[in-house]
Amino acid sequence: MKRFPTIAEVTTSVLLLLAAVLVVGGCASHDTSADHTLNTADVEPSHERSPDAINKTDGHVADETTKQNETSHEQPADTAESSAPALPGITFFLERGYVELDAVVVGREAEWLELVACTPGTREHEALVTVSATPSDLHLALLLLGVEPGRPQRGVRGEDGWRILPASGGRVALEFVIHKGADGEPAVVPAGAWVLDLDTGAPLDTRLWMFTGSRLLPNPDDPEGPAVYLADVNGTVASLVHFGDETLSMDTTKTQDTDGQSLAPHPDRMPPDGAAVKLRVSVVATGFAANTVPDKLQEPR
């Protein structure tokens, strides 16, 4: 029988991680929120990337890497902060305002896409990459960076029938980091650069997502027991359409039922399936609109 993390275990993990961050001076305060069960930390981000730095794209991968280093990433991507708390599959860069997830390319030959990232054994047929970290651990990592979780899009029944509550949450930048070997600088590209919109024939080229924070529901194996983090069950780490349980969601009107399989991989921009990459999740300055689309990237050299 598959075992899922309980809310008590998740809360304990939060407290342990906060204690670790307090030791190194990276935590500001602790709070609880009735609006979102897992919002147990109120941590001031140590670094925020400005809207201009996030939303500007350049014509080539190499130039994009230079731009990232000039704006916010002053050290190589593989130089982690040794004093940061450890979560499996996640590397912390607290002072620079981001985390990196170990990822493997799986979707270069996919027929359509509905996710940027999922966990192994879940939705690989419709995702660009798998990540070894659990969605709930990513949730904890973003709390430590000071990002405010919101809610996935959902339908609610009222006196006048059903209505849609749009997704909400703090904005983050989602990027792929491709390492070119011991002597090469890593290339950093928007997650949307690997996604082709079949309706327009153009790549998405966006890097902006929302920290929707998934949902807590009764354990399917033990309905009377503690609640579980739903994205851990279904593997929905970072989505391109609304599922209703994702940890990170793109700002879109499309759902898994209405997208018409209109998104596909952009293989000319991607490494081969099986390639190891990093999925970088960065803090974005408060109030930056996620639907502000940057200029389209040219094909990388």
Layout of helices and strands, plus pairs?
Layout lengths: L6 H17 L27 H5 L5 H11 L18 E4 L4 E8 L9 E4 L8 E5 L3 H10 L9 E5 L2 E5 L4 E9 L8 E4 L4 E3 L4 E2 L4 E4 L4 E4 L2 E8 H5 L1 E4 L8 E3 L12 E3 L10 E8 L18
Parallel strand pairs: 3-4, 14-15
Antiparallel strand pairs: 1-2, 2-4, 2-17, 3-14, 5-6, 7-8, 7-11, 7-17, 9-10, 9-16, 11-15, 12-13
Helix pairs in contact: 1-4
Short description:
The chain has 301 residues and is α+β, with helices and mostly antiparallel strands. It has five helices and 17 strands.
What does this structure look like?
This protein is of the alpha+beta class. The chain has 5 helices and 17 strands. It has helices at residues 7-23, 51-55, 61-71, 135-144, 230-234; strands at residues 90-93, 98-105, 115-118, 127-131, 154-158, 161-165, 170-178, 187-190, 195-197, 202-203, 208-211, 216-219, 222-229, 236-239, 248-250, 263-265, 276-283. A hairpin with a 4-residue loop joins strand 9 and strand 10 (202-203). Residues 1-8, 10-78 and 286-301 have low confidence and may be disordered.
Keywords, please?
301 residues; disordered C terminus; single chain; alpha+beta; three-stranded antiparallel sheet; eight-stranded mixed beta barrel; 16% helix
Number of strands: 17
Number of domains: 1
What average pLDDT do the residues reach?
74
The shape, in one word, is: globular
Please work out how many helical segments DSSP would assign. Answer: 5
Low-confidence parts: 1-8, 10-78, 286-301
Please bin the fraction of helical residues.
10-25%
Strand content: 25-35%
SSE sequence, one letter per element: HHHEEEEHEEEEEEEEEHEEEE
What is the topology, as strand order, of the major beta sheet?
A: 2-4-3-14-15-11-7-17
Give the biggest sheet: 8 strands, mixed, barrel
Question: What's the alpha carbon Rg, rounded to whole Å?
Answer: 18 Å
Straight-line N-to-C gap: 48 Å
Class from helix and strand fractions: alpha+beta
